[in-house]
Write a structure and sequence with these properties.
Blueprint (H helix, E strand, L loop, with lengths): L6 E6 L3 H13 L3 E7 L12 E3 L2 H4 L7 E4 L6 H10 L3 E4 L7 H13 L4 E3 L7 H12 L5 E11 L13 H4 L7 H13 L2 E9 L10 E8 L4 E7 L1 E13 L2 E4 L7 E4 L2 E4 L8 H13 L7 H18 L4 H4 L2
Parallel strand pairs: 1-2, 1-4, 2-3, 4-5, 5-6, 7-10
Antiparallel strand pairs: 7-11, 8-9, 9-10, 11-12, 13-14
């Protein structure tokens, strides 16, 4: 660290992601220290031996805190992020950025106003194979990319009662479009840049709930690529597929969360870090201490919120009244 003080973290939330990935990543990152936790259930945080708060405002009075990891439900991302930034803290926020594009832009504006770093936990941008795919596409290994097809299918209806907030659009924004879909949209944005047009079909044929259980998007990119995203909570056949078609060949990244990357005449094996959040935390700390570029900055990540908002408007689902301004 060259004598630099470590980054002292406050983590908001003690749920599945924070306990399995985020807190272990902070504890493993050599320039980081877990300083405290904000949780509605203090008993959940006692095992970490750090300060525990039930109120974010009280926690932010602690001048020792350098950075905040926001791992709360989506509807809290904007107010908690903006409060932390206004208090002079850097923020790494879970995905998606916010409930809607307006709130996402407000978070970015706050990071600029208070001159603090805002990162989003789109950790798939740091997959070695996704970065390698970006390099190969630039080299023209499949000619000019024209079509990208990406999907994620699974079954979810909060059967175990642990994540019911995902089925409440006022808290989550929507169903698989906001949850697993945001990662896939962001992967396309990472590879192809600015989206310019979105068409979508959203429906709930299996669960008949307030949020959709399936979403299909058609995204046009400024570079000429057409992206197709299909995400589902209504399939008991799990899929995690990604294929890019070019004028001279195709590239396959199926499964997206696996190591395989194939393209004409070659197959590479590029596994991700065993803790998928570790590269994200490490990159964020490097941005704070060393001025390194964030792989998933607030500015670049809000394009996923823009796509999501356009999709909901196009599909005219009832939750649009909740998620749109």
């Amino acid at each position: 660290m060259g004598g630099a003080a470590p980054v002292r973290w406050l983590v908001i939330g003690v749920g599945d992601i924070t306990t399995r990935r985020v807190i272990p990543a902070i504890q493993a990152e050599p320039r980081s220290v877990l300083h405290g936790i904000v949780t509605r259930s203090p008993g959940k945080g006692e095992r970490y031996g750090v300060r525990i708060w039930t109120d974010l405002g009280e926690a932010l009075k602690d001048s020792a805190i350098d950075a905040v990891y926001v791992a709360s439900p989506v509807f809290l991302h904007a107010p908690q992020t903006i409060a932390a930034l206004a208090a002079g803290r850097h923020v790494l926020c879970e995905k998606p950025v916010a409930l809607n594009y307006r709130d996402a832009c407000a978070m970015v504006a706050a990071s600029r106003e208070f001159a603090r770093t805002l990162g989003i936990a789109y950790y798939r941008r740091m997959y070695p194979k996704l970065q390698r795919a970006k390099e190969l596409l630039a080299q023209g290994v499949i000619g000019t990319p024209v079509l990208a097809e990406i999907n994620c299918h699974d079954w979810f209806h909060d059967e175990d009662g642990r994540r019911g907030w995902l089925l409440d659009p006022a808290k989550s924004g929507g169903g698989p479009l906001y949850d697993i879909g945001s990662h896939r949209i962001d992967a396309l944005n990472f590879l192809f840049g600015q989206p310019v047009r979105v068409a979508a079909q959203l429906s709930a044929p299996a669960h008949k709930g307030v949020v959709e259980d399936s979403a299909t998007l058609l995204i046009e990119y400024a570079v000429g690529v057409r992206g197709i995203v299909d995400v589902r909570w209504n399939s008991r056949v799990s899929r995690d597929e990604f294929r890019i078609v070019g004028t001279d060949g195709a590239m396959t990244l199926t499964p997206l969360s696996g190591p395989a990357l194939t393209y004409p005449g070659c197959e590479e094996n590029l596994p991700s870090h065993e803790n998928l959040h570790y590269p994200c935390v490490e990159n964020f700390v490097s941005a704070i201490l060393d001025g390194r570029r964030l792989y998933a900055s607030g500015e670049s990540s809000i394009w996923t919120d823009w796509v999501t908002e356009q999709a909901v408007r196009a599909a005219s689902l009832p939750q649009s009244a909740v998620t749109m301004s």
